[in-house]
Amino acid sequence: MFxxxxxAHSERDCWLVRxxxxxRGISYAEAERRVAACAERLRSLGVQxxxxxAIMAENGVEWATLDWAILSLGAITVxxxxxxxxxxxxxxxxxxxARIVFGGNEKLCALLGKAECESCVLPMSGAESVTDxxxxxxxxxWREQALKVGADEVxxxxxxxxxxxxxxxxxxxxxAFTFLCDAIVEQLPVDATDRFCSFLPLSHVxxxxxxxxxxxxxxxxxxxxxxxxxxADDIRVAAPTILLTVPRFLENVKSxxxxxxxxxxxxxxxxxxxxxxxxxLQNNLRPPGVLGLVLDRLVGEKVRGRLGGRVRFxxxxxxxxxxxxxxFYGAFGILxxxxxxxxxxAPVISVNHPxxxxxxxxxxxxxxxxxxxxxxxxxxxxxxxxxxxYYNKPDATEEVIDAEGWFHTGDIxxxxxxxxxxxxxxxxxxxxxxxxxxxxxxxxxxxxxxxxIAECMVVGDGSDHVSALIxxxxxxxxxxxxxxxxxxxxxxxxxxxxxxxxxxxxxxARANQSLPDFExxxxxxxxxxxxxIEGGELTPSMKVKRRVVSERYAELIAExx
Length: 561
Known about the structure:
Among the domains are: 2-149 and 188-245, Rossmann fold (3-Layer(aba) Sandwich), CATH 3.40.50.12780; 429-560, ANL, C-terminal domain (GMP Synthetase, Chain A, domain 3). Helix content is 37%, strand content 22%. α2 (28-44) packs across α3 and α7 packs across α8. The longest helix is centred in the first third of the chain and has 17 residues, at 28-44. It is globular. The model has no long low-confidence stretch (mean pLDDT 92).
């Protein structure tokens, strides 16, 4: 796939790197030479077909170069989140048997040195590194070798987030990825004129598949954001046509847009524009009426400008997209296409099409993928992109793939034709004392659309009502905190402050208006802490570890019963 694209699009930009005020392009022809040189260096280190080679680094050209080079040798890429603590990285390195692990910088190399594993730790970039460009390499022998790698050979071991225990290595073949590239292009209008902006971690199968393999398969270009701190500026300058996102990112951007709305006439215009969201989504994003056109010119163009002004659509994955978020962005002419999948499915099972998007759905099942609903409502999947199994864990594999080859996703939902609707995670469903089943993800999604709420976890097992642990969006209260003489850095004082409690209570009441009585949040506790990957409350893909949080805040949860 990579070689074919390099031949077909040799003069087009493959990768874009931020330099100064703009982005510098690296052509497909140069990208191929870089990968060939990197593969030759890996070979000189003794890397052979079937070897597991780990990458623990931030996104960038070096990551992409190394991944393609590993795959071209028939070796197996083991991506590791650069935010993982040393002991968790060590679990992955020991389980995978990685011969070499490449650290993205000195700090990560030092961390990997504490991972208690036998892997050789090497820097990924810098002088004489494997990704250091060598323009003199002969690429023909490399091409011949790369083209011999079979479709059914293992391409990657990708470790699941491990919300319920040690992570499991998902075995994915070259065929799984190439099949999905073809299937997605059949579903989404993506071609060589498109530009992606990569900022979600390449360690996650979502970004690796849809933001790394997919663009290259059709000759598109990929601009790499430098960091989360520079992300807003990088997106604006890169001016992507397609942006891969997750709901958490969309919520944060929404909060910043709302904060910039100001007061008076500006705020009035902003609110009027937001109110048109559902109407625009039902009208193919066209502004309704004269007022809609005026508001789009005054407000919509500025919001789209934050994303570079060229975005055709955003794709949201990794977690359920709250409908309110789709409506908010739709108000400014920004289309969000929700997709669905899991690491075990490489990951895409379904995605919406721009011309027939139903934003409350997870999209249409890709051609060549089979989906059916079990008697208990669980979504089952079968197809060429399904994993071979969990690495060295046959029992765990048999638990999720039945005798007929159906993968049990653990998600609850239903089908309307080939369109998928997700209700919840099977194992996360809360059963109240009155026997009612409650979807925590649905309630959490609605709560997090409120301006004052940054993060939350809904609880209710062993209770007759729903409660929530809530982390306020502390910066939202900056003005009031100053007015009341409370330091914004004193989170303990803030969560007990009357003005914070009052606003959170009002926002919960607003959220409750769209929920049936048994799902309404009746009690809450505010948390002064920040939930992080390093702290153990979040998975690397930014999902809340329910068991960890439940144990850590057991007393507060008991108070709310």
